[in-house]
Amino acid sequence: MDKITHTNTPVLDNFWMPFTANRQFKAAPRLLAAAEGMYYTDVDGNKVLDGTAGLWCVNAGHGRKKITQAVERQLSTMDFAPTFQMGHPIAFDFAAKLAAHAPGGPKGGLDRVFFTGSGSESVDTALKIAIAYQRAIGQGTRTRIIGREKGYHGVGFGGISVGGLVNNRRVFPQIPADHMRHTLDVERNAFSKGLPAHGIELAEDLERLVALHGAETIAAVIVEPMSGSAGVILPPKGYLERLRAIADKYGILLIFDEVITGFGRLGTPFATDYFGVVPDLVTTAKGITNGTIPMGAVFASRKVYDGLMTGPENQIELFHGYTYSGHPVACAAGLATMEVYEEEGLLTRASELASDWENALHSLKGLPHVVDIRNLGLVGAIELAPRDGAPGTRAYDVFVDCFNKGLLIRVTGDIIALSPPLIIERAQIETIVSTIGDALKRAA
Ligand SMILES: Cc1ncc(COP(=O)(O)O)c(C=O)c1O
């Protein structure tokens, strides 16, 4: 097929850009036009190394023929079909394929798959399943969900309620939720390599919230096993195990939000596998289709699924679903994506690169403004000291500088977050680190 060409000077007024300072961006836009492997090409023809896998989603790198061909084939065979009281084979095939790689492996039992269209939809779906499950087993007073400060669980009303990022919350009303403290502790854990040593006691916050609200009001607790969007916050050693134990003690479901950590980011198929802690529900999206077609999925344990498969057989068990749940084109993209991951060993490749990645990132210690460096699998964060009275501006300047030098990074506040495609080569790791290092030396 011919490549599509666009004008490189589009009218910028109409697209209301998400999570973007629209006026600032439109005054000096950064426009990407093509992508292949580890690189974007911008509208002026410059190559840009992708240090962020798009937006934590293009795990197998860009322009994968197997995926694009599967999408083309499916589009011309059957563009859309409903999944409400109807089905099509590819949705079942994809669910079975995902189940074969389910978080926690065959013993984990997380092999019942509910399809959504995004991470936000996966989160709201998981919260609703948790509440519905509790009611179905006679625990109907359990409607509260516990999240965590600095958590990011997308932008639905459920997701912002359990999320812990103030800018996403302050304007909007929320569902009943409460929050544990976050686990970022730069004072005690700065420059840890991998999991930080201090902070397991923060899991006891769940005990405190049970004492405050009563276990009989709490349906579930949701955490990102590793928080990405808030700036790469790692769980202290033993923390997730402790959380699992407390949740079990009180009949509270544990939900891992693996929208970022799913599909190989930490060097195992899921963070659930990395930590060996098995939750009751796992939310995913992003890497599920290598970012090509919007899609998400919730993995539910058999306990949760079977708990809801009760009542008369002609009764809908869960009044929930999306027009695009199990969209055939998304399923085709997902199936081909899983094949690429399998053929190239990408669900575990990050484990081979993790120590080189760690050493490369930590070589930036001592450069101007750097107050912490964090890493796990193929994720990294470089936290900068904020400028007096102008938080976020220093990292933003580094971001623009890196882009102009041919590297895409992501910044959140004054934290640089990195999550390259899992096909990255060692030389490209060096390029990422040296480009950031040079930008830090230039940064005021
Ligand atoms: C942990 C987590 N949950 C949910 C979401 C929301 O996903 P989406 O933007 O696809 O709605 C994200 C997005 O970055 C995420 O990182």
Automatic annotation (TrEMBL):
The organism's place on the tree of life at top rank: Bacteria
Matching PROSITE patterns: AA_TRANSFER_CLASS_3
CDD domains per record: OAT_like
GO biological process, one term: biotin biosynthetic process
Protein name: Beta-alanine--pyruvate transaminase
SUPFAM superfamilies per record: PLP-dependent transferases (SSF53383)
GO molecular function, one term: adenosylmethionine-8-amino-7-oxononanoate transaminase activity
Family label: Belongs to the class-III pyridoxal-phosphate-dependent aminotransferase family.
Keywords of the record: Aminotransferase, Pyridoxal phosphate, Pyruvate, Transferase
InterPro entries: Aminotrans_3, Aminotrans_3_PPA_site, PyrdxlP-dep_Trfase, PyrdxlP-dep_Trfase_major, PyrdxlP-dep_Trfase_small
Signal sequence annotation: none
Pfam families associated with the record: Aminotran_3
This enzyme's EC code(s): 2.6.1.18
Cofactors, names only: pyridoxal 5'-phosphate
